[in-house]
Amino acid sequence: MKKLYNIKTILTCLVFFVITLGLQAQESNVLSQARIFIDAGHGGWGSNDRPLPIIGFTTPRDTMAFFESRSNLWRALALRDELKRAGAGYVFMNRTVNGIFVPTDANPTGSPGALVPEIPNGTVVDGQVQQIILSVIARNVEENNIDYFLSIHSDAAGNPLTNHLVILFRGHDNQVGNGLVYARDMGRAAWPYLHANEMTVFGAHLSPLTPNVRGDMSFMGSSGSTTTPIPGGTAYTGHFAVLRHGADGFLSEGGFHTNDVERHRKMNRDYARQFGVRYSRAIRSWFGDDTETQGSIMGSFKDSRRSKIHPLFQFRPGTTDAHFPLNNAVVILQDESGNELNRYTTDSNWNGIFVFHPLDVGRYRLVFEPIPELGFDGDYYYIDVVANQTSFVNFTMRSIRLETPEVLSVVPADGSQVEASTDIVLRFNVDMDLESVTNAFSIYPPVEGTFIFENENYTMRFRPNFPLEVSTTYTIRLATTAKHPDNLYLEEEFVSTFTTGDRNRLLLLESNPSAETQRMGTNPNFYFIFDRRVNATSAREGIRLLDEDGNRVNIPAIRIQVNTNNVAAPLGDFRFTLAANQRLQEGRTYRIVIDGTVIDNVGIPLLYPIEFSFVAGYGVQTPEHTSQPIRVYPNPVSDVLFVQTDSNETPLLQLFSLTGQLLREVRANEISVQGLSAGTYVLVVNTGKEIHRKPIIVR
């Protein structure tokens, strides 16, 4: 079977031969000899063709909405046209139309009444056999001695903000599959070309220099399946059936169609075609072709003062995706002298995309026509076109806001009961004037805090400096002096109330060391028990072991074991021991500092720091507190709790609720819990010499 490395070997031999004859070799001939196969992933209007709703088209499998199969085809057709324009020798495709189905498809066609083709698999259309069966595609690739294989797809995820590129070759991350040589190298070489898309917002794999190129079996965590495309031929092992052949190449996941904003961009055919242009640049580069003399312009036309608020249009705040895309807006392409060359009207699919392709190298002027109803008087922008590249512009206008501001939502919700650690969040229908909103906001009882404006000033967050008071009803107000920057004011005062719960502090109930501890061993067990489940990250960062010089003993780096929240709920704990080679030094003084930033699992902080000091090692003294100085039993308890101490004096026993309320007090060695509700309490034992605190569970 013919592969790319055969072509390169032949080229090397030809170069040697031609040099021997004193002639000049022409690398551009490689592209003219290359055999390239383009697989436009999926193919129909069925449920397996990744149908998803967009704004305005939400009927299940409405063919006016998004289908990955159609987007893949647009990209594939553009790639085919670009390769033919560049003089590629042989370009094969699996299909040239959408709507292909096989008899086993459960839902082969689009929505009722939609004008869509219904074409059986294997039908010839315009001289092209339409093929979507993966095993047949693999056989066609194998039979046609393909040098470069590309399967075009987009990816999916549960999070509507996820968006990045993935390139998958057959094999494992560190080894291409059997029969392949250059598949991984092809993917890595293509990465910077595919990554060059300034219209999209990537959330991961942001650098064009660090390719996210993976073996399909490593990526999917599978050992793969084996297919023999041609009976009696080579058997190939891989995860994806469309890659189980012997041609070098890869599958490209060109972004995530489950990303709301990206999905609406993919509804623009010219945006999809630019994927084909980028694929073409990657393939031509692989074959050494540098003959491209033209470039492209791609941009977006948006309103920076608004965001598109819709359940199907979640966006990443602080990015260009947060700007309002303009439908049916006009962009005029002029030469540097101002002569009109072309014009583009953005579509009505909420993407604001415009594209001019192909263009000669040089400077151009983009004119953005006025939009009177938005108060936009028009603008222009100069941009340079470079050969074999796309020049990008994310143009934003600043509209005059015509809407009256209003509060769309508030957190906490009106009338709700919430934790005392809550922030107060107001979300508006327009971006707001920061100073007027800050001055118009009030809360009673009064609370000191910080204002944070988010989401292009569509959202105001008030963060109290300290937790709110417990069991308190607060009233928040936003006066009618709040306005947006175009001086339209809130029409009615906004009022909302909420009530806090019965906790606003995280309590340390028991610890080792504690305030009574004077000495500990050189390899002690440290533990800290709180009245609620503790946030593990805040505990790791906020509980510090310091030597007598104030240097931190790095718990995460030297721990043998760190455990969090192993005690019975609702209590929480944090425990750690040191590695054998990190024992404390005999006779030195150490400190445990628990920062006030340690929080529970709902964000309620300890608030004020706690500090304990102790000396490491016992020397010649009798070890102190090597075992519990008191014993409390049974725990959990349902009747009477007994306390045994090593003191000759009868202890004072006090039983508190977790909110600090004294419930019972007795000087004795036992205390009754009868009549108490099931739950967690704190027992304080005062022996006259020491005070001990123990969490008690009443059943």
What does this 3D model show about the protein?
The chain has 699 residues and is an alpha+beta fold. The protein folds into five domains: 4-18 and 34-286, Aminopeptidase (3-Layer(aba) Sandwich), CATH 3.40.630; 294-397, Sandwich (Immunoglobulin-like); 407-500, Immunoglobulin-like (Sandwich), CATH 2.60.40; 508-616, Immunoglobulin-like, CATH 2.60.40; 630-698, Immunoglobulins (Immunoglobulin-like, Sandwich), CATH 2.60.40. The strands form 14 sheets. The protein has a six-stranded mixed beta sheet with strand order 4-1-9-16-10-13. It is globular. It starts with a helix and ends with a strand. The model is unreliable at 1-29, 108-115, 556-560 and 620-628 (pLDDT under 50).
The tally of domains stands at 5
Main pleated-sheet profile: 6 strands, mixed
Number of DSSP-assigned strands: 48
- What spatial form do the alpha-carbon principal axes imply? globular
Give the class-level CATH name of the largest domain: Alpha Beta
Mean of the pLDDT scores? 88
Summing up helix and strand content along with how strands pair, one would put the structural category as alpha+beta
Alpha-carbon distance between the termini?
76 Å
Radius of gyration: 35 Å
Task: Give the amount of beta strand, in percent.
Answer: 25-35%
Mind telling me the CATH superfamily name of the largest domain? Zn-dependent exopeptidases
As laid out across the biggest beta sheet, the strand order is 4-1-9-16-10-13
CATH topology of the largest domain: Aminopeptidase
The count of helical stretches stands at: 11
Low-pLDDT segments, ≥5 res = 1-29, 108-115, 556-560, 620-628
Give the CATH architecture of the largest domain. 3-Layer(aba) Sandwich
